[in-house]
């Protein structure tokens, strides 16, 4: 770089730093500014020799992260300083945590230490099991050190996602999958809704770029029309709001690209068919004493002019979400008969919705009850500290609770409890206390006796009936949905299985002695293989509960005496099985291999996964399984995010190269209005015009509507698309989608 370039860059760094001080949400004192200045100088020194992949000086990254922390999340000077320093210890040999503590004090050092640990976790080499899920668990453990660690990590991830263009495609995909799988749900749970939306949209940009760009362009095209619609809507209610002397602003908020995509997939509709693509937000000024009263006043004004949907009222003012979110949401029929979501919030509520944790603390009154976020962290600690839980299972369960919507139910004494939507009476029992959950015999909801699987609804009053003799059984896992309840039940069942296994081992020793067989490592392995089990504990447990009885053990003893014959028989039967499988199996995986894998474009054996049934032309990737070789999944497979995030080291790039001779199974679903000759029209297009084979076809009609499922054999994706387009044109057909 020339001296002129260096001078220019230094000017840009100084400008970025000054902007950081300007945009801070909290008012910075002189001491705050001194702290931030010192952190900035240490960060500049620590990263002086570093550059990012894009070529710019590395220091721009910590400044950008600090800016997100200061402006979008609204944290204090301590957090801004920690954000500036978040990579210094990891990247610079000149600084250690002790130095940070000496320069900036204990709090900043704790936060930087937590962030350094998280970064070093993600750099560990992946080995035979998924470290990503285990790292996530360890990352959550830092919540207890200081919640700001996770918040700054989320800001760090947001800036990385915003500046990922210079990376390799496979790297982009891995980081984006991890973001959608872990960081977006975490941002949601901590109440950082704006950041959650940005993370989701950027995640989609790199996991499904074509879909992302298509929706983005369509949103841009319809922006003018939406602005006009918001204006029309606002005009109708402005007079009434002004009469009440309210100070307010009305804003339109387009739905995020990610949520529009989610709706399109869930409802099987096109972009134009997604009706509520935006929400209208009314933000009003008020004193704390009149805040609730004014929210309901605005609600009544809006519903005077527009008919509300009674099922879609969401009152998070009387019962705020556990993230601290407060608002009234109503869905009304707006101009031109369109459904519009109206969100009513005070300025305070709006700040909490946008800044989450930071604004919540700004408005927290002295002597208020324990904060919801702290409450959540304390509950989380229990789940985290159970080392026996499989890490990937833990992440899956945890995510269920992260993203779930909430319901509010009452205890018999009138105390309000928040549970995830879909929670059962058994979940409620474990929510009260683990001991109550373990001894649950039944439950009463609103005075009526209900099963443990009963799904609760907001407003229910729940009374748990317990018994000293009650204990968890495997069926309970079908009834429990929350991570807390499931982890407690699983660990109780494991203890029970161990106890029965120990008893079973002694029973087995006695029974084998009668058959003149010694219980040792060899005989245990033989028994495990003979009964097709996985572990010796499974064997002892089955003997303990009596599913392996005397007669079965005698059969084992007689087969053991003629081991050679058994060995030969198994060889023969194995061969015959393989032949039978080959006859049943499509020739896809053997004769006509049209997929190539990796950078070298190698031809390898693979299987097509059943969860998404890819066909030629679909964008796909290979996943190296433990026992079934390479399995091929579509890029938008429901399991893709989890696989990319947890097992990135097992992902292989895959590409179709020649699919002209192959045929693949695809399933389509058709719905519409029934009329005579409709099935004939459908089959004529499929078999006659398109020369596509149908494997199976089933139609049902109900009240003049029909729905049908058809399994087809097609050569590639473009042929299937052509067929779907032709079927959509048949009179009476409403939707044709690939399942």
Automatic annotation (TrEMBL):
Enzyme class per UniProt: transferase
Keyword presence, Repeat: no
EC number: 2.7.6.5
Molecular function terms from GO: GTP diphosphokinase activity
InterPro entries in the cross-refs: ACT-like_dom_sf, ACT_dom, Beta-grasp_dom_sf, HD/PDEase_dom, NT_sf, RelA/Spo_fam, RelA/SpoT_AH_RIS, RelA_SpoT
Keywords of the record: Transferase
CDD domains listed in its UniProt record: HDc (cd00077), NT_Rel-Spo_like (cd05399), TGS_RSH (cd01668)
Every TGS domain range: 405-466
Pfam families named in the record: ACT_4, HD_4, RelA_AH_RIS, RelA_SpoT, TGS
UniProt KW Nucleotide-binding keyword: no
Family, as annotated: Belongs to the relA/spoT family.
NCBIfam families: spoT_relA (TIGR00691)
Primary role: In eubacteria ppGpp (guanosine 3'-diphosphate 5'-diphosphate) is a mediator of the stringent response that coordinates a variety of cellular activities in response to changes in nutritional abundance.
Protein name: RelA/SpoT family protein
Organism per entry: Mariniflexile aquimaris
Lineage: Bacteria, Pseudomonadati, Bacteroidota, Flavobacteriia, Flavobacteriales
């Amino acid at each position: 770089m020339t001296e002129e370039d260096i001078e220019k860059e230094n000017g840009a760094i100084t400008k970025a730093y000054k902007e950081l001080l300007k945009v801070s949400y909290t008012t910075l004192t002189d001491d705050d500014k001194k702290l931030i200045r010192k952190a900035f100088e240490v960060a500049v020194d620590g990263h002086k020799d570093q550059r990012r992949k894009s070529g710019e000086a590395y220091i721009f990254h910590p400044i950008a992260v600090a800016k997100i922390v200061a402006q979008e999340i609204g944290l204090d000077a301590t957090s801004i300083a920690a954000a500036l320093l978040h990579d210094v210890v990891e990247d610079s040999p000149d600084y250690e945590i002790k130095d940070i503590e000496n320069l900036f004090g204990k709090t900043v050092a704790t936060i930087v230490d937590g962030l350094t640990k998280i970064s070093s976790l993600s750099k560990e080499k992946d080995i035979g099991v998924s470290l990503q899920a285990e790292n996530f668990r360890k990352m959550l453990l830092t919540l207890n050190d200081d919640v700001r660690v996770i918040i700054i990590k989320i800001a760090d991830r947001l800036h990385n996602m915003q500046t990922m263009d210079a990376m390799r495609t496979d790297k982009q995909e891995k980081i984006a999958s991890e973001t959608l799988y872990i960081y977006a749900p975490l941002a949601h749970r901590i109440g950082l809704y704006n950041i959650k939306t940005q993370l989701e949209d950027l995640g989609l940009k790199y996991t499904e770029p074509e879909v992302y760009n298509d929706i983005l362009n369509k949103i841009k095209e319809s922006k003018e029309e939406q602005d006009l619609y918001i204006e029309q809507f606002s005009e109708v209610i402005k007079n009434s709001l002004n009469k009440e002397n309210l100070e307010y602003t009305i804003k339109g908020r387009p739905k995020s690209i990610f949520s529009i995509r989610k709706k399109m997939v869930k409802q099987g509709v096109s972009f134009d068919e997604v009706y509520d693509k935006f929400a209208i937000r009314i933000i009003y000024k008020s004193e704390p004493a009149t805040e609730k009263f004014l929210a309901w006043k605005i609600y009544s004004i809006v519903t005077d002019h527009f008919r509300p949907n009674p099922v879609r009222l969401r009152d998070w003012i009387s019962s705020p979400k556990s993230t601290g979110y407060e608002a009234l949401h109503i869905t009304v029929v707006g101009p031109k008969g369109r459904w519009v979501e109206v969100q009513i919030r005070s300025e305070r509520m709006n700040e909490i919705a946008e800044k989450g944790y930071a604004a919540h603390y700004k408005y927290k009154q002295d002597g208020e009850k324990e904060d919801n976020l702290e409450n959540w962290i304390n509950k989380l600690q229990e789940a985290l500290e159970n080392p026996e839980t499989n890490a990937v299972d833990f992440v899956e369960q945890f995510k269920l609770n992260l993203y779930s919507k909430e319901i509010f139910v009452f205890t018999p004494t009138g105390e309000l409890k928040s549970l995830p939507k879909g929670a059962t009476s058994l979940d409620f029992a474990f929510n009260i206390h683990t001991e109550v959950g373990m001894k649950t015999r039944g439950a009463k909801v609103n005075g009526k006796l209900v099963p443990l699987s009963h799904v609760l609804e907001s407003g229910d009053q729940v009374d748990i009936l317990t018994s000293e003799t009650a204990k968890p059984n495997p069926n309970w896992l079908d009834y429990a949905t929350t991570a807390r309840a499931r982890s407690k039940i699983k660990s109780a069942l494991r203890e029970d299985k161990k106890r029965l296994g120990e008893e079973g081992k002694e029973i087995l020793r006695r029974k084998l002695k009668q058959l003149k067989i010694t219980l040792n490592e060899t005989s245990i392995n033989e028994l495990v293989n003979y009964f097709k089990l996985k572990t010796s504990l499974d064997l002892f447990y089955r003997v303990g509960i009596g599913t392996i009885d005397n007669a079965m053990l005698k059969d084992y003893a007689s087969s053991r005496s003629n081991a050679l014959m058994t060995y030969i028989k198994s060889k023969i039967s194995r061969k015959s099985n393989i032949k039978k499988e080959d006859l049943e199996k499509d020739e896809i995986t053997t004769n006509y291999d049209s997929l190539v894998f990796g950078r070298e474009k190698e031809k390898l054996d693979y299987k097509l996964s059943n969860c998404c049934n890819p066909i030629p032309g679909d964008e796909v990737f290979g996943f190296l399984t433990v026992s079934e070789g390479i399995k091929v999944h579509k890029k938008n497979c429901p399991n893709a995010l989890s696989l990319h995030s947890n097992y990135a080291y097992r992902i292989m790039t895959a590409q179709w190269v020649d699919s002209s001779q192959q045929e693949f199974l695809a399933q389509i679903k058709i719905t519409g209005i029934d009329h005579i000759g409709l099935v004939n029209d459908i089959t004529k297009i499929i078999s006659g015009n398109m020369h596509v084979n149908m494997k199976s076809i089933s139609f049902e009609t109900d009240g003049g509507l029909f729905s049908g499922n058809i399994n087809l054999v097609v050569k590639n994706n473009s042929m299937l698309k052509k067929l779907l387009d032709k079927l959509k044109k048949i009179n009476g057909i409403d939707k044709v989608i690939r399942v």
